[in-house]
Amino acid sequence: MRLPESWIETTVRSVVIDLQPGFAQKPGEEDEGTTPQIRTHNVTPDGKISLEGIKHITASEKELARYSLAVGDVVFNNTNSEEWVGKTAVFDQEGEYVFSNHMTRLRAHRDLVCPEYLAGYLQLLWSMGYAKTRAKRWVSQAGIESDTLASFKLPLPTLPEQQRIVDVLRQADVVAELRNLFDELLARTKRQLFIEMFGDPNPKINARWPVVKLGKFVTVATGGTPSREQADSYGTAHAWVKSTDLKDNVIVATEERVSELGIQRSNAKLYPKQTVMLAMYGQGQTRGRTGKLLIDAACNQACAALLPSDELLPDYLWIWLQLSYEAVRALGRGGQQENLNLDIVRGIQLPKPPVPLQQEFARRLAGLLELLKKSRAASEQYSAMLEVLQIEGLTGDATAAWREMHSAEIAEAARARDALLRERGAKLTQSSSVVATATTQADLTVRPARHWLLGELSEFQRQVLAAFTEYCQQSGQPLLVEDPEEFARFCDDAAVTDSLQAFGLSHGNRVRRSLSQLAALGLIAKVTLPKQDPESGERDYLKAFRPLRPDEFTRMTDVQALRKALSAGGDQRHYYFKVHLDYETSERAGAGGMFQVISLEDEDGKDFTHLVDQGLHYASLDELKDDIASALKVEAGQVDLEVV
């Protein structure tokens, strides 16, 4: 990795004054004490401390002295499943807390590193899949030893720049939190709409409507699981719902799909659109979760399929089940794992309002769900932008202009930092280059300034990148990941199955997540493409990915090349671009009348889309010109745009 001039490369060991794993509580003593103990589930996937499900223990004075947590400590998850090992957060709770042996406490040397910067970089390594590549593995678990963690390389800017990076990322987090609050408000609005129209969902309290058994008015069925030993039972033909697909949302795609043979060989059956799915069993909070089919789909035996009824309409039934989640879960029985079954589901008692009122509810709910869809699409776009911001912040790209404005302050801080590190015996490296190994696939075309990232990817991500590149080269088309059938064809393609066979079956969601991560890292390109519904004729815009083109480099490299190519022969050269605009995505995101940029090309057809922020909604072409001119460091009047 080529670091900014004022940055150095060191190790985690060099910037901490303490690195301490926690301790295990004796069996049977949990929740009997008064001291809360931070465990693996108390660090969230987005790098925050959560006290949900906190355990309490009895800790001795010696344990309290050695394993206490203070505000500003960095908490690293050293043991977990491969997927989760390496999660990191800054501890931000007042009071007396300790931490388990599956967590490691890092105390930052505050004259060298901000805790938020250290935690942010470790969390970035986890999100990239790097942490698990450094872990030792055993059955269903992976662990990172203290010496290994201490040896992690760390790009280290000066303290003032670290604080600037932390401030920028914190502001971005505030926006993300506001988006989450808005989504929560919409969810509460859905509940309020139901209560206003029908009253309390509890049939023991609600006397407005007759109480009926669900099975009297709704056909209740289930499905099956084709044998995993018969690979041809799985394929692209039919969506196949599992309990893990049920998240109280509409279902437009599933993690796995089954073939026609799979349907014939098992108890799986195809169910129509508007069928409500209910999870009868599953781990954690899965039992009782729901989904409503917007596609024809089969399901496995863990799901109850509630077929569309003219007496209990799908939307009414679906939302009633969501609002009755705890009551429905409480009906489960059997063994150590409380389960529902078809008889229990058929016997569920619920109020039965008049059908016209249910129809009016469905009409109003449709508008609310459309708003939820737009909000979630906007949240997804913002999350993708936030991933890019985190990477650019923690590698120096985001603060390049800030460094120029504070060069004297940075120079002084760099001297103090380097002197202190030398006193501590640390090795300082001004820059480094990580060479991609043969497993990276030598023919891959990536941005030169991103080459170092290939060495940081997990093996799964590298194989997905190689398979994706081969697939797109063969097809000659981008991959529409939001088209269920096309994504299923991709997952079933020989290039993909051969590359990923070592990782087992059923990793559709993991592949989709890896593609998003590769796009955020700048190793593939994310685009928006139109797709027309053959039934309705409506055009929708779907997320897609494509390999990088040979002439795509980092933004700064392309800007310099463009300026050099076009500036010869006069200072007032005009820059001409053809631009393809996307109004539909902005409309869906709640920014009606604005647009995003799909592509930007010069008159020779060379792509310069990277000169603009594709996640930004522009109000006018003048705003877009200003952005391009700023990137080129020229006047806006020198930029001419033609909309195509």
TrEMBL record:
Domain Type I restriction modification DNA specificity, by residue range, is 67-173, 208-370
Record family assignment = Belongs to the type-I restriction system S methylase family.
Do the record's keywords include Nuclease? yes
User: Any idea what this protein is called?
Assistant: Restriction endonuclease subunit S
Per UniProt, the keywords (alphabetical) are:
DNA-binding, Endonuclease, Hydrolase, Nuclease, Restriction system
Instruction: List the GO molecular function terms.
Output: DNA binding; endonuclease activity
- PANTHER family, per the entry: TYPE I RESTRICTION ENZYME MJAVIII SPECIFICITY SUBUNIT, TYPE-1 RESTRICTION ENZYME ECOKI SPECIFICITY PROTEIN
Positions of the UniProt region annotated as Disordered: 23-43
Q: What is the lineage of its organism?
A: Bacteria, Pseudomonadati, Pseudomonadota, Betaproteobacteria, Rhodocyclales
Where do the coiled-coil regions begin and end?
A: none
Q: Which GO terms describe its biological process?
A: DNA restriction-modification system
Where is there biased composition of kind Polar residues?
A: 34-43
Q: Which InterPro entries match?
A: Restrct_endonuc_typeI_TRD, Restrct_endonuc_typeI_TRD_sf, Type-I_RS_S_subunit
